[in-house]
Specification:
The chain has 487 residues and is α/β, with parallel strands linked by helices. Helix content is 28%, strand content 20%. The strands form 5 sheets. It has an 8-stranded parallel beta sheet. Strands 3-2-7-18-21-22-23 form a 7-stranded mixed beta sheet. It has a 4-stranded mixed beta sheet with strand order 5-4-1-6, with no helix packed on it. The radius of gyration is 22 Å and the shape is globular. The relative contact order is 0.18.
Length: 487
């Protein structure tokens, strides 16, 4: 088995940092070695197969993006990233594991939905991958099938309080599913928005001629996120089930989570980079020469971008510092503008919902370290260590420790990353800076004072100095245990 020595770097964990060399033996981390130690020999570098020089750089566990949607059917089309293109892009950005969502819709069997997603992903992924289970039809058959997910290595499921007629679950269905979660240890993930009310508001806006992407954010009012978050928390309290609220975007929803956590309830939340950096006014309300007011469609996602004026972004950074929100995922669900997002020209309700970010999460969150929003340790905790613990991968992923998978990123704080797709004077793309399968970048023009240098997935270098060295099929399916984050 191949051996690799990472020398000269500063190893950063969720609890501290230290100068140490890291020895990889095959697919596992074998040892952390104090610089200058001769415990394993006086010239260890000459006895290994590969030496990676990390002098002046950070050595961190590979990122875990616990919320992605590769190839997800939505709004008459499907997410533009396949498992091959999406995981390759993730690797470029320092993410070495994703957890995607297998889908069951009304009238379908959970087992069939899971089998379909295994078929999509098998042999395609550049990095390791796991699944959550979307339950879009909570009926007697689904409730009976839920406990069997644990044997399949799937320890979490997602319900929707939004999208009536597609994924929506009413309160009675949520209650029954949470009762199963309480009895089995499954973790309930919740899309918390009041979908029926949002649909009425959206219909009224369109009837008034307010059809631009900006009104997507108006229809999906923060009150409907706060209300649904509170309702989900109350149902979880009633049943005794743990609750994980996905893509939290409103500061009022964070307050609901904080109150429940302060009362000792097993309630958790994630946010996404878009809710830290982007806004209703600046992105959803954007205009361009090519698209006019439809430019904002690039940033249509749900939950929506919130108002900068009302301080949602600052509140979300604060929630990450205080641990009222525990994780940062991407909700990566990319769609091209031409042929996909433009299905909603003239009616924002028809714009496929999603933003592509899987490649940029580690960089964008590191910029929060640069600006003083986070510590280095919290960066690692939010993007790697907590996702591993939350979703049953602790000890295998999310840490640099002997016996863990050799998923390691060498990150250069003196490097620089420019995100976007440069264009010439006529507006034509001159080169693709990102590697996601999209015709635009939601992060066009963002500058990051750091750079992913080397990415190692289970002991194999998959990215080095921007060059992709991996292969599709390198990634393996992750059978996950029950959450290791519960109190």
């Amino acid at each position: 088995m191949a051996t690799t020595l990472i020398t000269g770097g500063t190893v950063v964990s969720a609890t501290g940092r230290s100068r140490a060399d890291v020895l990889l033996d095959g697919e596992r981390i074998a040892a952390l070695i104090e610089p200058g130690s001769v415990l394993l020999g006086t010239d260890l570098a000459s006895s290994v197969d590969t030496v990676v020089d990390a002098t002046g750089k950070y050595v961190i566990p590979g990122g875990i993006d616990a919320h992605t949607h590769m190839e997800l059917p939505f709004g008459g089309t499907a997410a533009s990233d396949t498992f091959e293109t999406g995981t390759r892009a993730a690797a470029h950005g320092g993410t070495t594991s994703i957890i995607d969502f297998a889908v069951q819709k009304y009238g379908e069997r959970i087992q069939d939905g899971l089998a379909a997603w295994h078929e999509k992903a098998a042999g395609e992924c550049a990095i390791d991958y796991g699944f959550h289970q979307i339950i879009g039809g909570v009926d007697a058959d689904a409730l009976a099938a839920m406990p069997g997910l644990i044997d399949e290595g799937i320890s979490s499921f997602k319900l929707f309080m939004a999208y009536p007629g597609i994924f929506y679950s009413d309160d009675a269905q949520i209650l029954r599913a949470m009762q199963v979660a309480r009895d089995t240890g499954l973790l309930t993930m919740m899309h918390a928005e009041n979908g029926p009310v949002i649909d009425v508001l959206a219909e009224q806006l369109v009837a008034e001629g307010k059809t631009d992407p900006y009104f997507h954010g108006i229809a999906r009012a923060w009150e409907m996120e706060e209300e649904a978050t509170h309702r989900a928390i109350m149902l979880a309290k009633l049943t005794g089930a743990p609750l994980y609220v996905v893509h939290v975007s409103a500061k009022q929803a964070v307050a609901q989570l904080a109150t429940a956590r302060d009362a000792g309830q097993n309630v958790f939340g994630e946010t996404c980079p878009q809710y830290l950096y982007l806004s209703l006014e600046e992105q959803l309300g954007a205009k361009s020469a090519e698209w006019g007011a439809f430019e904002g469609a690039k940033w249509v996602c749900s939950t929506p971008l919130r108002s900068h004026e009302h301080g949602h972004q600052d509140a979300m950074w604060q929630a990450l510092r205080t641990n009222d929100v525990q994780m940062v995922s991407t909700d990566h669900c990319p769609f091209c503008m031409k042929g996909q997002k433009d299905l909603g020209l003239g009616d924002f309700r028809k714009i496929p919902n999603g933003i592509g970010s899987v490649e940029h999460r580690m960089d964008l969150m590191y910029q929060g370290v640069v600006t003083g929003q986070l510590t280095l340790e919290r960066w690692v905790e939010l993007t790697s260590t907590t996702p591993a613990r939350m979703f049953g991968l602790a000890g295998r992923k999310g840490v640099i420790a002997p016996g863990a998978d050799a998923d390691v990123v060498v990150y250069d704080p003196n490097g620089h990353t420019t995100i976007g797709m440069p264009v010439d004077a006529e507006g034509n793309p001159t080169g693709r800076v990102h590697h996601m399968n999209m015709d635009h970048s939601a992060w066009e023009g963002f500058e990051v004072d750091g750079r992913v240098d080397t990415v190692i997935s289970r002991g194999r270098i998959v990215v080095d100095g921007g060059e992709y060295l991996g292969r599709k099929g390198d990634g393996r399916f992750l059978k996950r245990e029950l959450s290791q984050y519960l109190t």
